[in-house]
TrEMBL record:
The keyword Cell wall biogenesis/degradation applies. GO terms for molecular function: cellulose synthase (UDP-forming) activity. GO terms for cellular component: endomembrane system; membrane. It comes from the Eukaryota. It is found in: Endomembrane system. Keywords: Cell wall biogenesis/degradation, Glycosyltransferase, Membrane, Transferase, Transmembrane, Transmembrane helix. This is Cellulose synthase-like protein H1. One of its GO terms (biological process) is plant-type cell wall organization or biogenesis.
Length: 762
């Protein structure tokens, strides 16, 4: 046995990525930041500096801290290479996988989007008998259920077709968007007939789904959707439907994974905990139906782009001598049909390649909420075998029935399935007949099932933040588990990035709100680093993201210094004739060249860098600022957090064609009357006014004796912000959705007037 194990080739390789030149650049920027702080401190101590220099010093000290946190996250990058072809020797070791898809609103997340994601998962290269797909519909939509039922029938044709012809991307809307068979000249007559017939069937499927009427579905004679009659989105009983049962219909070589639809019970008197609550219901329902030891979760728009994605993930889950190294496997988020040059700064390619690879070299990549493979026992709160606590406890893997009941609830079936998973039985036989356990599944999905249990705290997805994903991953890391990053070619999963101003800023605001909630809670990473097993550098890595909303007040303050100085005839930067001017000048150029080179190394254009740079300024002054204020009001008990669903649009993989069909300028910023646009609109107006006033004063009065007024630095700062806020400059004179609404303009104008009055009084 030992000799056989030696002959097995490794399933994965951990490859450190050297970055000596980038480390030198990091240190160069840090040196300039420290020099700027020293220069300001000396000037303030000597009493020669204006009062606004103190505000500048505080902000620049904060920027230095942020830079140090980013340096920590970037300094130890690694990449994991996987070898799925070597799994052919270990077919018997492959564990079952339960795949979870979540959707919440049939209008913002159209059923056809969900259907394509489900079909791509059903067709992955993995034994069908070891797969089951669960779809959680928090919108309780008969149209979504109907679409999935139709998809299950279409899958009987689609899955065999994909496997027979070796289809690459198995989301039908992507596959057929090319307009012709992808096998080119190698396509024979039989394949062409199959391709044409399959495309015709898919078009019929699309037509049926898009033309489905919810009212007709609920009232039609066969009663298949009668359970939806009278159901309200936030007040209804559990609805579970087995749309396809693999155990009853498997055929050799052409099996189709089981497909189960779930709309969990919701009642007004019980908090449903948004997506985290839906994920916990999926975990419990799947536990009593199929109980796979591995769980994959994806958002409804995140289709499987690589047909071997599950095999690649298994290389990381099975490829370490100690499973502590792969508590979960996270794939980076990548997007199809993306606009050229990332005009809304939400494709996050550089973020994943720079920060993501670096954090993967610490305790592991963060859980991103989609495209992630979990060990079920890790989600259940189990600790690694190699981690020991000081306090005495029962023998690992053998908790008592009473202990399990307290943690997991009163369901006997759930407790038994939990016991088998915690004991490490990864190859346990699945339930023979799924349909026979639907009543048990409804019991564990009841809205009051979690009362008195550890769900949402020590077990399952963690409650307390709208960013339940990163909070759950942090809890896993704090128990001692590590995680790995699944970076493969073609990419594992592809999703849709929101476009337009409202959708992009809404997404950033939701993320920032949840991150600050974590930072101010008992789940603060510093506490977990001190009292649990979260590594200190990993703790600092989490802080890179948790401080997003905290950055807003500092960056807003710094952005206001330029206009204030031009309006109040002061300065917060050294004059061009002074020796100290070289420090902020060098920092400005070095910082921007550094990030431009990062984008160049990631094979992105200078325009992509500029778009992301300006969006950073816009997001900080809008979404992050409102998130900061939202959490502040919540902390004071004056408001509650609201979960905002981002619209999911399904274009074609061609970014230009996909977005230009119905929109003359898809990369142009759009606006609505949301408060999120008010701060940036006010800053745009303020900087324009400040430049005009400063230029008029300089022309009319000249340079004052002694040079006490603003210099070239203040003009550059205001001019740079006007360039960053150029979409809002266009919005001030734009029309329709491209124009800023008058309600936003008026509110922003009042803020500008208040600031002008303040400048006159100070």
């Amino acid at each position: 046995m030992a000799s056989t194990k030696k002959l097995q080739l490794p399933l994965q390789e951990r490859v450190p990525l050297g970055r000596p030149a980038w480390k030198l650049a990091d240190l160069a920027v840090l040196s300039l930041l420290l020099a700027l702080l020293a220069s300001r401190t000396v000037s303030l101590a000597s009493g020669d500096a204006p009062p606004c220099w103190l505000a500048a010093l505080v902000c620049e000290a904060w920027f230095t801290l942020v830079w140090l946190l980013n340096m920590n996250a970037k300094w130890s990058p690694v990449l994991f290479h996987t070898h799925p072809e070597r799994l052919s020797e270990r077919t018997g070791e492959l564990p079952a996988v339960d795949m979870f898809v979540t959707t919440a609103d049939p209008k913002l997340e159209p059923p056809l989007v969900t259907v394509n994601t489900v079909l791509s998962l059903l067709a992955v290269d993995y034994p069908a008998g070891k797969l089951a797909c669960y779809v959680s519909d928090d919108g309780c939509s008969p149209a979504t259920c109907y679409a999935l039922r139709e998809a299950a029938e279409f899958a009987r044709l689609w899955v065999p077709f994909c496997r027979r012809h070796g289809v690459g991307t198995r989301a039908p809307f992507v596959y057929f968007a090319s307009g012709g068979p992808e096998r080119g000249e190698a396509a024979d007559g039989e394949f062409l007939r199959d391709w044409t017939g399959m495309k015709s069937e898919y078009e019929k499927l699309v037509s049926r789904i898009e033309n489905a009427d919810e009212g007709f579905l609920v009232r039609r004679g066969d009663g298949e959707f009668a359970e939806f009659l009278g159901a309200e989105r936030r007040n209804h009983s559990t609805i579970i439907k087995v749309l396809w049962d693999n155990s009853k219909s498997i055929r050799a070589g052409e099996g189709i994974p089981s497909l189960i639809y779930i709309s969990r019970e919701k009642r007004p008197k019980h908090h449903h905990h948004f997506k985290a609550g839906a994920m916990n219901v999926l975990t419990r329902v799947s536990a009593v139906l199929t109980n796979a030891p591995i769980m994959l979760n994806v958002d409804c728009d995140m289709f499987a782009n690589n047909s071997e994605v599950v095999l690649h993930a298994m290389c990381l889950l099975l490829g370490f001598d100690d499973e502590v190294h792969s508590g979960f496997v996270q794939a980076p988020q990548k997007f199809y049909g993306a606009l050229n040059d990332d005009p809304f700064g939400n494709q996050m390619e550089v973020l994943f390649k720079k920060l993501g690879f670096g954090i993967a070299g610490l305790q592991g990549m963060f859980y991103g909420g989609t495209g992630c493979f979990h060990r079920r026992k890790v989600i259940y709160g189990s600790t690694p075998d190699s981690i020991t606590d000081d306090k005495p406890r029962r023998t690992k893997g053998s908790p008592s029935y009473k202990e399990l009941q307290v943690k997991f609830g009163i369901s006997k079936e759930l407790i038994e399935s939990t016991r088998s998973v915690i004991s490490g039985d990864v190859l346990a036989a699945p339930v023979a007949d799924i349909s026979s356990r639907l009543e048990v599944a409804k019991e564990v999905s009841a809205s009051n099932y979690e009362i008195g249990t550890c769900w949402g705290q020590e077990v399952g997805w963690v409650y307390g933040s709208v960013t339940e994903d990163i909070l759950t991953g942090q809890r896993i890391h704090s128990t001692g588990w590590r995680s790995t990053l699944l970076e493969i070619d073609p990419p594992a999963f592809m999703g849709s990035a929101p476009t337009g101003g409202p959708a992009s800023l809404t997404q950033y605001k939701r993320w920032a709100t949840g991150l600050l909630e974590i930072l101010l809670s008992r789940n603060n990473p510093f506490l977990l680093s001190i009292f649990k097993h979260l590594g200190f550098r990993q703790c600092l890595g989490y802080l890179v993201f948790y401080i997003w909303p905290v950055r807003a007040p500092f960056e807003l303050c710094y952005a206001l210094l330029g206009p204030y100085c031009l309006l109040a005839n002061q300065s917060f930067l050294p004059k061009a004739s002074e020796p100290g001017f070289i420090i902020p000048l060098a920092l400005f150029f070095t910082f921007n060249i550094y990030y431009l080179m990062e984008y160049t190394e990631c094979r992105l254009s200078a325009r992509a860098w500029w778009n992301n740079h300006r969006m950073q300024r816009i997001v900080s002054s809008s979404a992050w600022l409102l998130a900061f204020l939202t959490v502040l009001l919540k902390t004071l008990g004056l408001s509650e957090t609201v979960f905002e669903v981002t619209r999911k649009d399904q274009g074609t993989p061609d970014g230009d064609d996909a977005n230009s069909a119905g929109d003359a300028d898809p990369g142009r910023f759009t606006f609505d009357s949301s408060p999120v646009f008010i701060p940036v609109t006010a800053l745009t107006m303020l900087n324009i006014v400040a430049v005009a006033v400063g230029a008029w004063r300089a022309a009319a009065e000249g340079v004052p004796p002694g040079g006490g007024g603003p210099g070239v630095g203040e003009f550059v700062c205001c001019g740079w912000l006007v360039l960053c806020f150029w979409p809002f400059v266009r919005g001030l004179v734009g029309k329709g959705s491209y124009g800023i609404p008058w309600s936003v303009k008026l509110t922003a104008g009042l803020l500008v007037v208040a600031f002008l009055h303040l400048c006159r009084r100070i």
